[in-house]
Design a protein that fits this description.
The structure holds 2 protein chains of 2 kinds.
Chain A (H helix, E strand, L loop, with lengths): L2 E5 L2 E3 L5 E8 L7 E7 L5 E7 L6 E3 L7 E6 L4 E6 L8 E9 L3 E5 L3 E5 L2
Parallel strand pairs in A: 2-11
Antiparallel strand pairs in A: 1-3, 3-8, 4-5, 4-9, 5-6, 7-8, 9-10, 9-11
Chain B lengths: L8 E4 L5 E6 L12 E5 L6 E4 L13 E6 L2 E6 L8 E9 L4 E4 L3 E5 L1
Parallel strand pairs in B: 1-9
Antiparallel strand pairs in B: 2-6, 3-4, 3-7, 5-6, 7-8, 7-9
Classes of the chains: A mainly beta, B mainly beta.
Chain lengths: 118, 111
């Protein structure tokens, strides 16, 4: 059974940094792209970033480009999202998801809440 | 504001059929990129409902079906049940944005 478990969320001040992690199990991690998707309070789903199975291809939404960095460690079956220069509008539940053919996302982790506030 | 437009809400009585539309443009759905659909139940994790425009993952009832034509796609739910009450999102890839996009979401209410 595929399992994705996010961690690293919390409260951070505007301008601060946070690193999210996603521990994956139940599949050949290096064979699949992975993605981060977020949902702000009361809002819809927003794609944030994606990475290819090898890690050589990385992709970002315009809203986080230059501030967030996605990476993976295939030896540890782990996905990361380094978030810098955080803003209030980055407040959201962040989900990691397996990205099939870098096309659709399934399954999703349970999410981790990031709150950016002073 | 998303590049994929969905109605904010739809409703139907138990047993009825409802459809949710997803309208895009020539840089996403119209460019031939697949449309995928997700169900987000209250307090739960988003779940893939339809992938590749019209394919159902194992375990998804055949009451759910997807279609795509031109710059639009639709999700149809037949035999509506109370447990179908959720938010539904379409998703595709946009070449102008060079990234993946979700629709704004549609809240389904079962009357």
């Amino acid at each position: 059974e595929v399992q994705l478990l996010e961690s690293g969320g919390g409260l951070v001040q505007p301008g601060g940094s946070l690193r999210l992690s996603c521990a994956a199990s139940g599949f050949t991690f290096s064979s699949y792209g992975m993605s981060w998707v977020r949902q702000a309070p009361g809002k819809g789903l927003e794609w944030v970033s994606a990475i290819s199975g090898s890690g050589t291809g990385t992709y970002y939404s315009d809203s986080v480009k230059g501030r967030f960095t996605i990476s993976r460690d295939n030896s540890k079956n782990a996905l990361y999202l380094q978030m810098n220069s955080l803003r209030a509008e980055d407040t959201a539940v962040y989900y990691c998801a397996q990205a099939w053919e870098l096309n659709w996302f399934d399954p999703w982790g349970q999410g981790t809440l990031v709150t950016v506030s002073s | 504001q998303s590049v994929l437009t969905q109605p904010p809400s739809v409703s139907g009585a138990p047993g009825q059929r409802v459809t949710i539309s997803c309208t895009g443009s020539s840089s996403n759905i119209g460019a031939g990129y697949d449309v995928n659909w997700y169900q987000h139940l209250p307090g739960a994790v988003p779940k893939l409902l339809i992938y590749g425009n019209s394919n159902r993952p194992s375990g998804v009832p055949d009451r759910f079906s997807g279609s795509k034509s031109g710059t639009s796609a639709s999700l149809a739910i037949t035999g509506l049940q109370a447990e179908d009450e959720a938010d539904y999102y379409c998703q595709s890839y946009d070449s102008s944005l060079s990234g993946w996009v979700f629709g704004v979401g549609t809240k389904l209410t079962v009357l």
